[in-house]
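Let's sit down with a protein and look at its sequence and fold side by side. Please make up or recall a protein chain and show it to me in full. Label the sequence line and the structure token line clearly, so we can match residues to local backbone shapes. Go ahead whenever you are ready, and we will take it from there.
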Amino acid sequence: MARKKEIQLQEELKNQEQWDDFLSKKGLGMIDVYQAWAGPCAAVNGMLRRIKNELGDDLLRFASAEADNIEALERYRGRCQPTFLFFAGGELVHVIRGANAPLINKAIPDLLKAEHSVLEDGSERKVITDPIFDQEDKEADAEEEEEEAGEEDAGPQKEVTVAIIKPDAVQAGHVEDIIQRVKDAGFEILAQEERMLTEEEAREFYSHKADEEFFDELVAFMASGPSHVLVLSKGDDAGAEVIDEWRKIIGPFDSTVAKEEAPDSLRAQYGTDKSMNALHGSDSHEMATRELAFFFPNFQIPKSEAKPAEKRLQRTLALIRPDALKEHKDEILAKIQEAGFTVALQKEMQLTKDQAAEFYKEHEGQDYFDQLIESMTCGPLLALGLAREDAVERWRDLLGPKEVPVAKEEAPDSLRAQFAVEDVPINQLHGSDSVDHAEKEVQFFFPMQQTLAVVKPDAQEHKDAIIARIKEAGFNIAFQKETSLTEELAQQLYTEHEGKEFYPQLVEHMTSGPSLFMVLSVEDAVERFRELMGPTDPEVAKEQCPDS
């Protein structure tokens, strides 16, 4: 018996012409907009098939579209969250972000019913603009108006975050206390209101957590009573990283963890368990923009009167531990370069257990100490001295949380999450936690040294160029002297070569004219100067290290 051909669930829209054709057709169309690297959201296909079969409505159509190939989706390119657009009559009527199956399941019948009413009863179709783009357009319009008005002295736009005092803290009467704590920490409250979320609103707001086990519990909790919503900034300090600062103050997501690791945090003091953790904070600029549009769609972010904070050029120590170095060295170095860091110092080395214990002596006595030492000494590691503006803080942001499970849950794009090694509990990258520690740690791996450099008689005509190269490489010339060696001094200088075939010729060469002697100082001076010189045989150097 011939097998019945399966009807394709989703149309594949590969170009602008196919996009326009899909939108021109009558009915309700749901389009899964995806990035090329991620592909369509297969997680909802089973549900869509079931809905299509249950409703049996020819006006309902599904499609997928890659943002990079369609001009109309230009503004959706580069956004990592799954996005579902609903079109009717060629107009956008609804948007759902995240693979939120319950919300999609509810939205489709409601939107389809509304479209039938438009087509059959002449009702007005409710057309929308994407809330995220609406907010971005408002910000762009505001900037344009200021430019046209000649407001050249206005500072940059303030950075803001959305904070929510959740129902458990509101019902317990902690709102005033928390607001006072917010003000005491130097935050400026730009807007606030008490808001009772419906279950549908709670599902939409937390749609990015739809796949979590606690999602339904979280939605029920957020709809169980009023919340107090605030928009926070840091006064006129436009450069203040208010998102990160607020998240530090509220503490870890799980209140029980917060009570142990950050007892002074707000979640430790006012939360009760993992989901009922008293407070919420935006976790990125993009999420803050989305949440601001959700709660305060007409809010205009004010400008700061202050000038941007001056950038601080810093250096910090980065360690790629042995397991990650073996498997992901090139990928990690590429990420470091993409993040704008300059690798000022670099050394691959094998630590002894005594060296590792000395470096991490402040962790001695902790449960994980032995595992940490084992991880640091199981093979060669790569030590890097990284430089850029605010290097210490920027590198730690790139690393993510110390605990690998926390990094994977709360910061999946962080380096510690991306390059975790299976069955190894210790995170695979280290970063200095302060400017002071950075300097001490850089000195540990790249101690300040002095070395002797000699420009030999045959290179005297190039000595100025050689000195310039030495300075460009970061060496400090602590002392220099030009002198002609006697035979006795030349023999003492090269005594380790005595008895070798080339020894007489070397002594003769070193006494044939004046040499320039220099004392060079810098971190790891000996090794770095030998790398700068290249192989001892000039022919080998020309072939293997032409820039030496």
In short: Confidence is low (pLDDT under 50) at residues 1-6. DSSP finds 24 helices and 16 strands in the chain.
